[in-house]
Amino acid sequence: MSTDEFPTDRPAVVTCGLPYANGDLHIGHLRGYIGADAFNRTLETLGQETAYVSGSDMHGTPVAVNAEQDGVDPADFALEWHDQYEETFPKFNVEFDNYGHTHDETNTQLTQEIVRTLDEEGYVYEKEIQVAYDPDADQYLPDRYVEGTCPYCGKKARGDECDEGCQRHLEPGEVEDPTSTITGNPAEYRERSHKFFEVSAFADYLTDFLDNLEGTSNARNQPRQWIEDGLQDWCITRDMDWGIDYPNGTADGDDEDDLVLYVWVDAPIEYVASTKQYSERVGTDEYDWERVWKEDGDIVHVIGRDIIQHHTIFWPAMLEGAGYNAPRAVAATGFITINGKGLSTSRNRAIWAKEYLEEGFHPDLLRYYLTTTGGLQQDVDFSWDAFQETVNGELVGTVGNFWYRSLLFAYRNYEGTPEVDVSPDVADRIEGAIGDVRENVNDYSLRGVGQAAVELAQFGNEYIQRNEPWKLTDDDSEARSASEEPSGDEPRGPEQAAQVIRDCVQIAKAVGVLLEPITPEKSQQLWAQIGEEGTVADAHIEDALEAPPRNFDEPGELFAKIEDDRVDELNAKLEERVAAAGADAEESDTEHDDTDGDESADATDTSEAATTDLEALAEDRIGFEDFQELDIRVGRIETAEGIEGADDLARLEVDIGLETRQVVAGIKQLHDLEQLPGTKCVLLANMEPAELFGVESNGMILAAGEEADLLTTHGDAALGEKIK
RNA sequence: UGCGGGAUAGGAUAAUGGCAGUCCACGGGGCUCAUAUCCCCGAGGCCCAGGUUCGACUCCUGGUCCCGCAACCA
Q1: Contact, A36 vs A14, CB < 8 A?
Q2: Which nucleotides of B are covered by protein (CB under 7 A)?
Q3: Chain centroid offset of residue A293 CA
Q4: In chain A, which end has fewer C-beta atoms inside a 10 angstrom radius, N or C?
């Protein structure tokens, strides 16, 4: 590892986090794949020898569980997702040099080889541990097959992680009061012999490693804390069938056959395996995977920030222990939010890869948005409104407009590039942009790379505007030359027009070269428009200064505006979908309640308890004016349905005369929702809107006490009448 | 109560301890080659309180507020 700037004279490899073969891809995933792809493309543009590799992550309990539920073989299940991913990436111009998967032969062999080495080097030991076991299902319960109580914070936790409480990684056997997620029965602990990787032996090594690690700051800082707290050795085997077998001859005990490696052991090794496959395909003369991974290659991992631990603790320790090269950089991306709220696949608040394409948007638009909207490390919000703003403002208005106006002018007046040399000032400006790209890629700032290109286009617009070549061309310059004499030091008239347009074509080309890592396809179209041969992807960044071909055809517009009503439509679709997901989930929730006898018992318990201790009366009196601020109206419940995941909450539509409001109310425990429609109620109408369980609530239904006894009217007050 | 991230103009987003920049929106002007696109000018900003410093958006302490994480959703 070295801190030489890119491009280095060593081979590099860029990876993105492995997609887990368990579900559809969405823009949260894409951010990482596109980011790594753009980074790799930028390195290529700089002349760096590099490869971009990844693969599908096929093992682990979620795949095993879901495959079982679908009644299919886990390998088939995972492969189906793998195939889908492989088809999807090119559609976003994400071009891997190799894309494999963790279940293939290369990874299986390499994983076993590396683990064997770790074992031989004395970094692996065996320990008897307590493993949860489900006597009814007659099987052991690794990781998420078991849940229980976190021994550190006392909260409910999954078998491998205290997900709701302290977020600690839990080792097998740590969870208290284990329950089987297969049968729901209490699990018992049985003693089993498992393999442990001695991570604790690497504490000093890892501290040094982090000091030299490039990438994003969160990937350096977070693990320092973990090291200070003390590293736990890492249990690397599991009692299950789906996974890579622990290498033969080293495990002992009768049930050796059942032990597979923990998914996080073989997953990162896929980075190496995938590189190896690439090397084997193109030949080691062209790209030598062993040099990269075992000698002096520059290894760059782009990951999501949730897997920093694996990439800055476990993984470098494994690499070091097995005699491999250490990563040069770990760049951890932030999350994507949708309209300011957390992306949620279960609530369908997500922009799916497939959906984006079906809407007919060009992949380069999303690539640009995701890479330039925020820093790599920052959380980035996605909304169709912001997407529109970025596309229309920067890609259409600045880049597209500059490209089109320059090339069209050049084509009409000169049938291509005017035959003069580019002016020194413009060449300097382009040189400056090239410098910005170099600097930014070394800072792992894709945003900066994109900005350097767009700012150059912006300069182009200023330049053409300032020089007004349209006033200087042959056609109508005669009239002008009478009034506007040459100002002496600068040539005015046709020669200057030719110079300006010559410069603009050069700038247009440069923008195309510089933007290629982010908008490869659009840049390629520009490349073709100016009559260049070959592909812009193969161009070197210095080609931005090379003269474009003399002649080219009439150019076309490369970016189209996104209209307002299109955005309205997309917003409506998204809202609808989120609402529908809530309703679907609610149905299954209701089914649950029916079979759950405890629910009704709970309700009676609380109603009895509620009568015994009453809240003390409030001391503070309020004025009439304070009361008047409350806009309380008579309403009628039109529809009522439960909300997914909530014990008491219901989604109501309430007619309050002037309009119908959607309200979320905690009234499910006492009232039968089916009886509610038609019932009059009292609603606080100027309550701030709130979102509860993903459902927006626009008002507050008045009800009494803990179990929410609904208030109503006894006369025939009209809907919408104010309570005074 | 936990962990992580954050707070900069109306909205969004930057700045090795050294003049707070950029985009959208807004007000004014200009251009007509260009997709009503583009260019120029203007107004408008560092969460609060301390501390370190010649100098703090930046570093330290304390506080306030926001966001994410709770069926693998990165």
Answers
A1: yes
A2: 2-6, 12-15, 23-25, 30-35, 37-40, 67-74
A3: 27
A4: C
- Helix boundaries (H) for A92-212: 105-120, 203-212
**CA A494 → C1' B24, Å?**
37
Nucleotide nearest to A22 (CA to C1'): B72
Tell me which protein residue sits closest to nucleotide B74, measuring alpha carbon to C1': A304
The residue ranking higher by pLDDT, A711 or A513, is: A513
Q: Which nt has its C1' nearest the CA of A458?
A: B38
Q: Give dist(CA A681, CA A689) in Å, integer.
A: 19
Structural domains present in chain A: 111-261 (2.170.220.10), 415-545 (1.10.730.10), 568-599+620-710 (2.40.50.140)
pLDDT digits (tens, 9 = 90+) for A442-480: 988 999 999 999 999 999 999 999 999 998 775 544 444
Report strand pairing: A234-235 vs A188-197: antiparallel
Distance A306 CA to B69 C1' (A): 10
What's the average model confidence in pLDDT over A203-209? 88
Q: What is the b/e burial string over A526-548, where b = at least 16 CB atoms within 10 angstroms of the residue's CB? A: bbbbbebeeebbebebebbbeeb
DSSP structure string for A650-662: EEEEEE-SS-EEE
Query: Distance (Å) from CA A218 to C1' B9?
Result: 29
- Residue A522 Cβ under 7 A from any strand B atom: no
CA distances from A368 to A314, A315, A351, A551 (A): 33, 31, 16, 30
**How far is Cα A680 from Cα A717, in angstroms, rounded to an integer?**
9
Q: Is the sign of the CA dihedral A237, A241, A242, A246 positive or negative?
A: positive
Nucleotide nearest to A389 (CA to C1'): B24
- In this prediction, residue A153 carries a pLDDT of 66
Residue A244 tokens, joined: 């890579």
Which residues of A belong to the annotated binding site? Answer: 150, 153, 162, 166, 345
pLDDT tens column, A642-694: 766 565 677 888 888 888 888 887 776 667 777 778 888 888 887 766 666 66
